[in-house]
Write a structure and sequence with these properties.
340 residues, alpha+beta, Jelly Rolls, Phage tail protein beta-alpha-beta fold, 3 domains, 13-stranded mixed sheet, three-stranded mixed sheet
């Protein structure tokens, strides 16, 4: 029982799971459907968590210490588990009452905590957090973000997008990782993306920005419209469709070149594309894409390069292709891949 409760709590506290339940998208549905296929034993946990979230009109806007927040959720889950037989689990009146109880407890506790702690500190904290909005994806996850001006951003795995609550006044975002932007046109308000030392400026267009901290180069690939790029070293260029700008971080150069759609932006359509890609980079990409970790028994096995394209493929299928070409063996268990 205790283990089951913990697993339900983890789902309820997972903002990506909650986002899927409350506002499902094609990408999130695809991800969580695959997750449930690989975790069939968690079906009941998912259903209980879903009922609690929907019935309680789940919200993380209440500001309270983590331990008190966890205590509230534990009590709700414990009660739901005790009453979680088949008859009650599907009884709408029960879930309605459980949702009301959850919401009331959260509101009362939030009010109590506001009185218990220094009010001025709480106010400063809320103002600071309300000024900036941050959207984050973990390994193995993608997310579509709708910005206040109607622009859409698809975040790739292990990425972070930050923007102001006053976004309509100044259309500016900060990106860590990778994202594809579809910017709503506004000739009076340029749209800027800050990624490391690089600034991308547009009026209305679609383009991809890749800027992971561990990468040796950052790139901006334009699909439609025109994009102005620049960095702090004085490099700048105007990019047109089917052209990308590559900022090499080692020697601070800006290269302009055509790009492969599959390689550069295929990820948003479920395409993984490798083209003479060093094996260590292949492994890093798969770790981020599928949310797994790799154990390599002998690093010399990762000598060489790999070329291949996969669309909406399972990790096992990709690993079979890579291992067949490169000659190593592998085993896959849960979220861990061993290469030997």
């Amino acid at each position: 029982m205790q283990k089951a409760n913990h697993q339900i709590l983890e789902l309820i506290k997972n903002e990506h799971f909650v986002q899927w339940i409350v506002t499902p998208s094609e990408e999130s549905t695809h991800y969580w459907s695959k997750w449930m296929l690989t975790h069939p034993d968690r079906k009941k946990d998912v259903e209980i968590a879903r009922q609690i979230i929907l019935s309680a009109q789940y919200s993380k806007d209440y500001k309270m210490p983590e331990e008190d927040y966890n205590l509230v959720l534990e009590n709700i889950v414990n009660y739901s588990q005790k009453k979680g037989n088949k008859e009650i689990q599907w009884n709408p009146n029960y879930w309605k009452m459980a949702g009301i109880a959850a919401a009331v407890v959260l509101v009362l506790l939030a009010g109590f905590m506001a009185m218990r702690f220094n009010v001025s500190k709480n106010i400063r904290h809320e103002v600071a957090s309300s000024e900036m909005i941050t959207k984050t994806t973990l390994k193995g996850q993608k997310m579509v973000v709708q910005l206040p001006d109607g622009s859409k951003v698809m975040l790739n795995a292990e990425s972070e997008l930050t923007y102001s609550t006053h976004f309509k006044t100044k259309r500016s975002v900060t990106l860590k990782g990778e994202a594809f932007f579809e910017v709503t046109k506004d000739k009076n308000s340029p749209f800027t993306v800050h990624s490391g030392d690089i600034m991308t400026k547009v009026l209305g267009t679609s383009f991809n920005v890749r800027s992971y901290p561990e990468d040796t180069e950052n790139s901006i690939a334009v699909v439609t419209g025109k994009v102005e790029v620049s960095d702090k070293q004085g490099n700048q260029a105007l990019l047109v469709p089917n052209v990308r700008g590559v900022f090499t971080l080692e020697d601070n150069q800006l290269l302009i070149e055509p790009f492969s759609v599959n390689k550069e932006i295929g990820w948003k359509d479920g395409v993984i594309h490798f083209e003479d890609t060093p094996l260590p980079q292949v492994i890093a990409t798969l770790e981020r894409w599928y949310g797994v970790s790799f154990i390599v028994k002998d690093r010399s096995l990762l000598f060489g390069k790999y070329t291949g394209t996969y669309k909406n493929a399972s990790l096992e299928k990709v690993m079979k292709g890579v291992s067949y070409t490169t000659g190593f063996e592998f085993s896959l268990q849960e979220k861990e891949v061993t290469i030997y």
